[in-house]
Amino acid sequence: MKIGFIGLGKMGRGMAANLQTGGAALVVADLSRTAAEEFTVRGATWAETPADLARDCGIVFTSLPTPADVRNAGFGPRGLVEGMAPGTVWLDLSTNSVDVVRQIHAELAPKGIHFIDAPVSGGPAGAASGQLAIWCGGEREVYDRCLPWLEKMADQPRYIGDIGAGTIAKLVNNMASTAIISVLAEALSMGVKAGLEPGPLWEAIRTGAAGRMRMYDNIGRRFMQAKYDPPSFALRLIHKDASLALQVGRDFGVPMRLCTLVESDIREALNRGWGERDSQSYLALQQERAGIEPFRLSAEAVARIYAES
């Protein structure tokens, strides 16, 4: 059986490569044919359109930036649904909207096509190394059937529940981690404004109870170095994720005061034209408000702190 993969960007490239290394007969598609060359030279087949890809494949993966991109790949001109036969499985690895994944599932089910929402967590490095979580929502039997292929891409694939469950889990994860680093930036700013050097302060709190849980490591790669360009994950995309998470809160009547404040900071950064900077770039607003200079630890200093952990 051939495996289709649409979306060979920072995340998709690594996952598709691991599928191919794991023995998948890949059919690939992307807006840029150049992005597919590293796969076609290793034997993958290029598909001109999603519909062409779907006609050849029993399982299709998509890894795309926004819910609109996912819908367009599926239902736009020459989209996946034009080529999918009954029994085909579509697994969307994107961070999507709960409403959109449920709508897609409902539209495909009468055609006998299975849809699994399967967002991932681990970043481009995890996608490349296979140290990746994939959280899946949909029919358990379909998930079990696809598990051998998921295990080619990730060391932590997990079935969460019915359709939409994987997306909710991903939005919880992204909203929580985004809020945590926002609070951390605020507290670090207070410590620096009170007279401490940022490097020793950050190093010290990492040895406390919460720090030993490795909650603070991610902030070192960007915020502590004021290193926002080029992005690992674009600010506009984390804003999309935060907005989707807040929508889930509204849908279920859950107050999300702190998370709403975080989203408003991200929106302010977007309004400054920072959408293509790194997802942590909005944290610099806190330093600006506190009247302190950006922290500029060297990459070597950060690496030393990590190595001493």
TrEMBL record:
What the entry lists under Gene3D superfamilies is as follows:
N-(1-d-carboxylethyl)-l-norvaline Dehydrogenase, domain 2 (1.10.1040.10), NAD(P)-binding Rossmann-like Domain (3.40.50.720)
The GO biological-process annotations, alphabetized, read as:
organic acid catabolic process
Does the record carry NAD as a key word? yes
PROSITE patterns per record: 3_HYDROXYISOBUT_DH
| Top-rank taxon, per record | Bacteria
Active site (UniProt)? 170
Give a yes or no for keyword Signal in this entry: no
* The 6-phosphogluconate dehydrogenase NADP-binding domain, residue ranges: 2-161
EC number(s) in its UniProt entry? 1.1.1.60
User: Which top EC class is named for this enzyme in its record?
Assistant: oxidoreductase
Q: Which GO terms describe its molecular function?
A: 2-hydroxy-3-oxopropionate reductase activity; NAD binding; NADP binding
Keyword set, alphabetical order: NAD, Oxidoreductase
User: In what residue span(s) does the 3-hydroxyisobutyrate dehydrogenase-like NAD-binding domain sit?
Assistant: 164-283
Q: Do you know which Pfam families this protein is assigned to?
A: NAD_binding_11 (PF14833), NAD_binding_2 (PF03446)
Under InterPro entries, the record lists: 3-OH-isobutyrate_DH-rel_CS (IPR002204), 6-PGluconate_DH-like_C_sf (IPR008927), 6PGD_dom2 (IPR013328), 6PGDH_NADP-bd (IPR006115), HIBADH-like_NADP-bd (IPR029154), HIBADH-related (IPR015815), NAD(P)-bd_dom_sf (IPR036291)
Family, according to the entry, reads as follows:
Belongs to the HIBADH-related family.
Q: What is this protein called?
A: Tartronate semialdehyde reductase
Q: Which species?
A: Paracoccus denitrificans (strain Pd 1222)
Species lineage, top-down? Bacteria, Pseudomonadati, Pseudomonadota, Alphaproteobacteria, Rhodobacterales
